[in-house]
Design goal:
By secondary structure, the protein is of the alpha/beta class. It has helices at 62-77, 91-104, 116-128, 154-169, 184-199, 215-229, 241-253, 269-276, 290-305, 323-328, 334-340; strands spanning 23-25, 50-56, 80-86, 108-112, 133-136, 148-152, 174-178, 203-208, 235-238, 261-265, 282-287, 313-316, 319-322. It folds into two domains: 50-152 and 290-317, Rossmann fold (3-Layer(aba) Sandwich); 154-287, Rossmann fold, CATH 3.40.50. Helix 1 links the parallel strand 2 (50-56) and strand 3. Helix 2 (91-104) runs parallel beside helix 3 and helix 6 packs across helix 7. It comes from Cryptosporangium arvum DSM 44712.
Length: 359
């Protein structure tokens, strides 16, 4: 098998951050290049374009761009006019964006990433206003109900890559964590890290890191300082690819690429280039295809609007990707990864005869 599949939670069907203006994507302006529907569009999609608000908190890097592109492609295929706002690391702006979306009374609202304290009260308001709402990678408290929760299986992604780390370096070794708190996916991955460290008697010698508008660049000096204090660390877990790229650069700056192994989460074409570069310390990652996820989130809310989706949550599977296999198979793009591991395509997740995967 090309990639080791991460242990997955049951599929129920089916990261953030500079200010930008709203943009709209009319279904007629960017036709889908995906599979053809075998049935006509049902109501409400069989008349004028259906307006759906996408309220984003994205960050730097290819991941968020690919997610957005997947969402746009699927929206076009479903006759959806997708109105997009992106707060880009400004929580106050995302709160304002989401309130404005509620006030505009769209057919549905999609929330892509965000801080719990910012999003929770506004999701309550959206639901109370009768607006179907779906969130991606946002941790909301138990008293927030009536929405659809979607996410990567962050726990299984972390477990897969950390199992590989322990396999590579063994137990009773010095390790470091470069991450940030307050972000739902990073918090979930961090819980797995704590357990793996304890179970394998690993010694965490440092924890540093932050998420910013320039995450990769801003983490280089933090990791550089940690490595100067702990040059004997054997491995670093950096569970967000923009952080991982900063870690790789810091390791190389300290000429430790032959001694320190780096483990990440997420993947993009730029990440693959870093992983396969000569002497790269980034030896493994675990990932989903963000473009596929963006499309699947749009399909899920589309099915909800058509009265064909009754679940409350959806989780997306991922795979372990190792540097060794990338080099052996000459894999250089995310498209190559999806071909090698077709389950990433999500062709059976939140689909219908009128709503195939368009990503």
């Amino acid at each position: 098998m090309l990639f080791a599949t991460s242990a997955l939670a049951t599929l129920l069907a089916v990261a953030s951050c500079s200010q930008s203006d709203s943009t709209e994507s009319d279904a007629s302006s960017s036709p889908s290049t995906g599979p053809t529907a075998s049935a006509p569009l049902p109501s409400p999609f069989n008349a004028d374009p259906v307006t759906v608000a996408l309220v984003r908190q994205s960050g730097a890097g290819d991941y968020f761009e690919a997610w957005g592109q997947g969402a746009q492609k699927q929206a076009a295929a479903a006759n959806i006019k997708l109105t997009v706002t992106d707060a880009r690391n400004d929580n106050a702006k995302q709160a304002s964006d989401l309130q404005q979306a509620i006030d505009s009374k769209p057919a549905a609202i999609i929330v892509d990433h965000g801080q719990t304290d910012t999003i929770a009260p506004l999701v309550k308001k959206a639901v109370a206003a009768g607006i179907p709402t779906i969130v991606y990678d946002v941790a909301l408290p138990a008293d927030v109900t009536g929405y659809i929760n979607t996410s990567q299986s962050d726990e299984s992604l972390a477990q897969a890559v950390l199992d590989q780390m322990v396999k590579d370096i063994g137990q009773n070794q010095k390790v470091g964590l470069v991450s940030a708190t307050g972000f739902a996916p990073l918090d979930r991955r961090g819980q797995v890290w704590k357990k793996v460290v304890a179970d394998n008697k690993l010694q965490q010698v440092f924890f540093t890191g932050k998420v910013t508008e320039s995450t990769a660049t801003d983490n280089i000096p933090l990791v550089d300082a940690a490595l100067k204090q702990h040059p004997d660390v054997k491995a670093i877990f950096a569970p967000y690819d923009e952080i991982t790229k900063g870690v790789v650069q810091a390791v190389k700056q300290n000429n430790l690429q032959d001694k320190v192994k780096v483990y990440g989460i997420d993947i993009s074409n730029a990440d693959l280039e870093v992983m396969t570069a000569a002497g790269s310390p980034w030896v493994a990652t675990a990932a989903t295809d963000p473009g596929q996820i963006g499309a699947a989130v749009v399909r899920t809310i589309s099915l909800k609007l058509a009265g064909q989706f009754n679940e409350s949550s959806v989780q997306f599977p991922g795979v372990l990707i190792t540097q060794q296999v990338l080099k052996e198979k000459s894999i250089t793009t995310v498209g190559d990864v999806v071909k090698a591991e077709p389950k990433l395509k999500l062709d059976t997740v939140s689909v219908a005869d009128w709503l195939p995967n368009a990503a």
